[in-house]
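Morning!

As promised:
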Amino acid sequence: MQFYNTTSREKEDFYPAYPPQVTMYTCGPTVFNLCNLNQCRRFVFADLVKRYLKSKGLQVKHIMNVTDLDDRTIDGSEQAGFGLREFTDRYTEEFHHDLDALHIERADGHPRASEHVEDMVELTRKLVEKGFAYEKFRSVYYDISRFRDYGKLSRVNLSKIQVGKTVDLDDYEKDNPRDFTLLKRSTLSELKRGIFYKTEWGNVRPSWHIECAAMCMRHLGETVDIHTCGTDLIFPHNENLVAIAEADCGHRVVRYWLHNELVTVNDKKMVPGQNNSVTLREVLDRGYSGRVVRFLLLSQHYRKPMNFSYPALDAAGRTLARLDEFIRRLGFAPLGERAAGLDQLIYDVKTQFTQHMDDDLNIPGALAAVFRFIRQANPLITKGSLDQEGRDRVIELLQGFDSVLRVMEFESAELSPDDALLVQKREQARQEKKFDLADEYRDQLRSRRIHIIDTPNGPTWELIK
RNA sequence: GGCGGCAUAGCCAAGUGGCUAAGGCAGCGGUCUGCAAAACCGUUAUCCACCGGUUCGAAUCCGGUUGCCGCCUCCA
């Protein structure tokens, strides 16, 4: 199994430091508004990595933080007229709803920044003691000139970057404009609202970078197998995490950095709060299922940007419908003698799926194998070339794929006795060529959200959603 | 300005040296069908942004050009 490690910019064989345990950290949301699809892709990607590792028999300990203490949550809560905690509680809850909608497994922990401030202060203290950080006007900054490997993750060339491109340096009193903030002196407004923590340097609050570093090491220790995040956060956020963590431990902390590409709209990055930002909630409100959104976000390779549009989402829905239909047909497959080639087909698709997934989670390749299988297996259903065991094996096969993908639906299409009787009566009427009566029954079934589909082997049905 | 990435059919998208360039959507043709709806099967790139080079052989390696995207230290 190989992953593309951002540190080396190459695919590398993956071995956990302490098998069969795998530790994994994912940058979570800043809970000041609803998640947009760019963030959702980050979470779906992490979920995919975790599920695939688990399917390999590894035990994954996964931590995803919740950033509830930063400029945006502070500003957002003030503008909304709520206390910080009350405000972030609300969006944390919304975040959990979104995870559920996308069938994302909960992490083993979703630590909140506000509940780990002691860890952050302690970490800062250690960095100051070791000479990696300095206090200036009651804020504490990281001195990047002290960290020899600074830039090794993002490969920035410090002498050539344009300082101040995205930050107003007037707000800081750093020795070097390239240094970054660890603890920031609380503003007057923050002090009034009680948003400050007493330290030897004064009343401060932590920065985003030290929050992630502290929570990551607090929950996973000094060696973390996998850290997943979006490419937009490589610099400075992830670079700074490396600088903090390695300065503290004196050795490499994150072994494999996995970064997913962004979701764009009209080929421009989706930015929260801007008009091109599409939240998951608004997509769901339009009537799309979280399952379809998950499939769309999953269906392209994670290292390629994905341009979101509703037509693209519709197309993903139709693709998924083909998969759904195959499973539905399987449930109604007339049993007969098993076709000779079935075992080979199953073996082939399994092998191909695994090969593609092992190759840096090549989902498009893996899905192509699944759809090739479906095309080859469909005629077997039509011809009645499956026996009970063969059918069970196909369902088991799909369930195996779905333990990783989590986009299929296997719910049984059992009808209530009343509905089954209606189906039977309609078929009886059809046999007797009483088509008006048959259509009447069909309409009755439809009003009970049952859609009849006739086949040469008799009527089948699906539940209308 | 620096660093990184991308360019494959109408659309989306795999493929990084060698059989006839995966797969999905849309389209077209067919099968099935009382009707309807659906489904299933088949089919759709002599060619992989452009120019040059390496090689027996390149979408795939190298150089250059063009276009687009991301990041540049508290914006996710």
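Chain A is about 45% helix and 15% strand.

Hope this helps with the figure draft.
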